[in-house]
Design brief:
204 residues; alpha+beta; 6-stranded mixed sheet; two-stranded antiparallel sheet; 8 strands; globular; EC 1.8.4.11; oxidoreductase; peptide-methionine (S)-S-oxide reductase; peptide-methionine (S)-S-oxide reductase activity; Met_Sox_Rdtase_MsrA_dom
């Protein structure tokens, strides 16, 4: 208890730069992937914990942000409260910029996407329910669509078919992206004791 109290009282100030690759490593060709797998706090947290950008050279992820996508195209710049109401049909998502020379989109990003949540529950992760918590991959090229479908089929066959469960993940071309409010960015790094969905863990 004393050690936990000390960690709260004397914790070093939060440094957001520690979660973005150094500027001199941002020059390689970058690939973007958007994914939704429940609450975006836990999604961003688990990806950055396993693919940290720093110390350089990192593990492939260069930059992330949480935001909203996949919703009603007539709704511009949606806010957290309206997304959580379900009225806009946007999903809480994470936008990942990564170096494809270090980590592949298929057996890196997409495979980890499936490992780190339950893709068989429709519009729900744990106790979080609603379309904003749906499992989805938003692709940025025809190649990403093909890779996402192939990885999905492989994960289905290897992990879920024998359990009589079916992946419910949506695979669709990416549309407009809206960054979430500043207080949601890197939330669980700023607030280590904050809420996290229990499905955001490595399932295999």
């Amino acid at each position: 208890m004393l050690s936990r109290l000390k960690s709260v009282l004397f914790r070093a100030s939060f440094d957001a730069a520690a979660f973005t690759a150094p500027s001199d490593t941002l020059s390689p060709p970058r690939t973007v992937s958007n994914g939704t797998l429940g609450c975006f706090w836990g999604t961003q947290h688990i990806f950055l914990k396993h693919f940290p950008p720093t110390p350089a050279p990192g593990k492939g992820i260069l930059r992330t942000s949480v935001g909203y996508t996949g919703g009603n195209p007539l709704v511009k710049n949606p806010a957290y409260k309206s997304v959580c109401s379900g009225a806009t049909d946007h999903a809480e998502a994470v936008r990942i910029e990564f170096d494809p020379a270090v980590v592949s989109v298929g057996f890196g990003i997409y495979s980890f996407f499936y490992r780190s949540h339950d893709p068989t529950t429709l519009n729900r992760q744990g106790l979080d329910s609603g379309t904003q918590y749906r499992s989805a991959i938003f692709t940025h090229s025809p190649e990403q669509i093909e890779i996402a479908r192939r990885v999905t089929q492989e994960v289905q066959a290897e992990r879920f078919t024998r359990k009589n469960r079916t992946i419910a993940t949506e695979i669709t071309p990416a549309g407009a992206w809206w960054d979430a409010e500043t207080n949601h960015q890197l939330y669980l790094f700023k607030h280590p004791g904050g809420y996290r969905c229990p499905t955001h863990r490595l399932h295999w």
